[in-house]
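Deviations from the work plan: none for this task. Representative record:
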Amino acid sequence: MTSRTSSTNWKHAFAETYRWSIKRNRGMMALFATLLFLMFPAVVLFGLANANIRTDSMTLEVYPISEQYANVFGDIVRYTMLLTVSSLCVLFTLLFAVQLFRYMHNKRSTDLFHALPVQRSAMLLGRVLAGLTALYVPLLLNTGITALIALSFDIKDKGVQIGGLFLQVLGLMLVLAAAFLFCVLMAVCSGTTLDMVLSVIGVNLSFPILVYSCIYLIGCLLPGFSPSIDLGSTLFVALAPFVGIFLHTTNSSTFFVWWAILTVFLAFLSVYLYRKRKSETAENTFAFQIPKGLIRFLITAVGGFSLGYMLYWYYSSTANFLIGMLLGSFAAHMVVEAIYSRGFTRMKRSLAGYAVFLGAFVIFYGVVATGAFGYVDRMPNLEDIESVTFEDYTYYQEFGSDHFTIQGEQYESLAEQNPKLCQKENLEKVLTFHQAVIDFQKEMGFPFSMNRETGGIQYQFVYHLKNGDTFRREYRNTRFEEFDTDSAVQDLQEQSASIVNSEEYKTSGNLLFYLEPEEISEIEVENYDEHSEMASKTYRLNDMQKKELLEALRQDTLNMDITGHEDYSARLTGLTLVCGNDGLLQPKEGGRLQELAGEYQGKIWVPVNQYVLTEKQNDLQVVQFLKKLGWYTPEN
Amino acid sequence: MIEANQLTKRFDGITALDQISFQIQSGSIFGLVGSNGAGKSTFLRTLAGIYQPDGGRITLDGEIPFENPTVKARIFFIPDYPYFIPQASLDDMAAFYSRLYPNWNQERYEACCGMFPINRKARIGNMSKGMQRQVALICAIAAQPDLLLMDEIFDGLDPVMRQLLKRIVGSEVVDRGMTVVIASHNLRELEDFCDHVGLFHRGGVLFERELDALKLGINKVQAVFQPLPEPDAFQGLDILKTEVRGSLVSFVARGTKEQILERINALHPVFAEVLPLTLEEVFISEMEVAGYDIENILN
C-alpha cells in the first residue's frame, strides 16, 4: 500500500514538474519553432519554388519534373539538416538545458525546489522530458511542414523521400537526447551554470581532438599500426554528442546504437548523482570532484597534444613533441584550474591532478613506444592464413594498377580486386618479409621514436584468416636513404621484389587477367612526343586482334620486373584499352568479371587503363603487336 | 514532534551543526536564536529536507524529511531570502504550490490575500523585500503545513505587518496545532511570540527552555537601602548578578516574585520593586552564569 501511494506520488510529482516546466518554456519553444521554420521548411519552399526546372521535351523524357524536384528537395534537405537545423538544435539543446537546470546552481532556488514535496528523481526526469519535448515538438512540426511542401510539389518517390526525411529526423532526435542528457549530467555535476556550459563546450570540443591525437601518436610511434582515421566515426564523437549532432546523417547503425545506449546511461547516472548531490554545492564550482578531474584531464591532454604537435610538425622531432606536450598541458591545466576555481588560490592543490595526467601520459607513451605489449611482434601463423593482400607502394605499377574495382551502372561498388596471395610458397615469402620489416624497424631504434614514420604507407599486409578475421599491418615510409649502405635495406627490397614479381601477385589484382577479349571494344594510341602535336587515334580490333592484344599485354605483365624503374624521359606512347562504352560493359557470361560481379546481372563499369610505352621498350610484345599493325610509329 | 539526535552538518570542513540533540514539541512556536553563523539556518534547511545531515538524524514524527515527499508535504519553509519563479506573480506561485502541497486551501489563500496589501497579479520580482516576505507567508499559510519553518521572517516587515504575521501564525497554531520554528537573532521579536526558545552558538545548542518558565523563574530587583546592608544579608537569595550604585542595589535572582520580595522586605529597604526581565536579559543572565560571554554570542 505504501509503495503504491509512493508510486502515485512520484507520478503526480513527475507529471506536475513536466507540466510546469513545459509551461515555463513555451516562449522558448515558440522561438525555436519559428527559427526552425525560417531555416528549414521556408528554405525548402523557396528552393523548390525557385528551382531551375528544365521543361524541354528532351530533358523531360529522361528527367521528369517530379524527379528534378526530388533532386532539388533532396539537396536542400541534406544541406539544411546538416548546417542550419543541426546548428539550431545545438544552440537550443544548450539553452533548454540551462533554462531547466540552472535552479540547481543558485542557493535561493534550491531552497525553493529542494524543499518541495517532490522526489529528486521526479524533479529531474520531469524536466528532462520537458526539455526533450521542447526540442522534439518544433522539430517534428517543421519536418511535417517540410513533408507537406514536398507533397505539394509532387516530388518523385514521395514516400521514400519523406520517409527518409523522417528517418533522418529520428536519428537527429536520438543524438539530441544524448546531447541534452549530457548537459543534464554536467548541470548535476557543476555548481554554477557557467561551469556547466564551459564543461559541455570543453568536453565536446576536446574529446574528438584527444581521440584523434592519441591515434595519431600511436600511428607515429608504433610500426605496423594502421590508424584509418575516420573523423565521422562514432569513436571520435563518443563523448561529444554536440559534435555527433552534425553527423546524424550517417547510415552507421553503430552510431545510433551508441547514442541510444549513452542516452540511457546518462539518464541513470544523472538521476543517481542528483540524488547524491548536496544542495549546498550550489554556487560552488563543482558538486562532484571526479567529473571536474576528468574534464580537467581531458582539456589538459588536448592542450599538451596541441602544442606538442605544433612543435613536432615544425621540427619533426620526438624531443620537440615532448617539450610541447609538457608546456602545453601545463598551460592548459592552469587555464582550466583558473577558470574553474575563479583564480589561482587552489592552483597548488590542483598540481596533484596535473601529476596524475603526466603519469598517465608517461605510461601511455611508454607502452606504445615499447611495442604496445607485443603488438609490433604479433604475426599470424602460416596455417591460419587463407590469403594475404600485400602492397609495396615503393614501385610504380606501369601496366595499369595492380588493383581495380568494378561498379554497377549506378556506380555502386560490386568488387574490389587487390593482389592476393594464397599459395603456400608465397605466404611463406610474405611472412618472412613481414618479419624482416619488423626486425628492420627495431634495428632503426628501440624504444620507437616519433620521427621514424611520418610519410605515406610503404608496405601494407592484410592477412585474411581462415576463421574470417583480418589481420592488418601498415608500415609507413622508412627513410631508406639514411640506410643505403645497410645490407638490411637491400635485403628488404629483394624480398619484396620476390613477392611482387610472383605470377600469383601479378595476376590476382590486374584487370588484364580478368578481361575477356570480346569485352575490349577499341584501343586508343596517343603519341606523347614533345616535338609533335599530341595526336590520338582510335582503332577497332577484330576478335583475333583483341585476343592477340590481350595475350601480349598479359605476357608483358608477367615478364616485367615490377621493381624496375623505366626511363620516362624517352619518347612515350600511350595505349588505352577501352572496354564497352567508355568503361561501361556487359560482362561475358561465365567470364571472370561476371564471376566478380556475383549475382549482379546488369552492365558494369571497369577502369579505363592506359599503358605507357617508351621507345626503349621495343622488346615488349604489345609493342610488337602494334608495330605489326602499323599503329606504333612516330607518325601516329 | 521534531527530534534532533546528534545532528551534524559540515560545509567544506566547517561544522555548522555539531552533534546537536533536542526536541521540539508539536503545536509549539519555537524560537531559534543565535548570532550569525550559529547554525540556525542550517538547522532549518536540514529540517526542511533541503540538506542531508552528515551525521546523526533529524525527524518529524519519527520520519526523516530528506528525499521524503510525504514528510515534506507537511513542511513549508520560508528562507531568509525567499526565491520565487522568475516573472511569477502571487497567483502564479499559488498555482505552483497548490499542485504540490496536498493540503493547499484555496479559501485560506483568498482570505490571506485579503488581509495583506499585495497585488496578486503583480510580478513578485518587482516587489519590496517586506512584500516578498508577505507573499511567502500567504503561500505558506494556504499550504496548511503541519510545520512552518521561517528564517529571519521579521526582516523588512513593518511593525503592523509583524503583528499581523504573529496573529495569523498564532491562530494557525491554535486552530490547527501547527508547529512553528522561527529563526532570528532578534530576541525582542521572539519574546511575545514564542513559547519555547533555543540558543544556538557555533553549531551547538547552548540552551533550550520553555519561555514562561524561564521568565517566571528569574527576576530583576531594584532596591534602595540606607544604610546598605552587609553582603551576607542577601544570603538565601539565588542571585545571578549584582550591581551597586550608591544606595541603589540592583540584582537578578532566581525565584518567584513573591519569594524574592519577602526576603528583600525583611531587610527594610527604603524602596524595593521586582521587575520582569526581557528575554534578552534572561538569556544574558543565564549564559553569564554558564560562563559564556553572552554579549558576543548574541551580537
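Chain A has three domains: 2-191+233-281, 382-443+456-508, 511-628.
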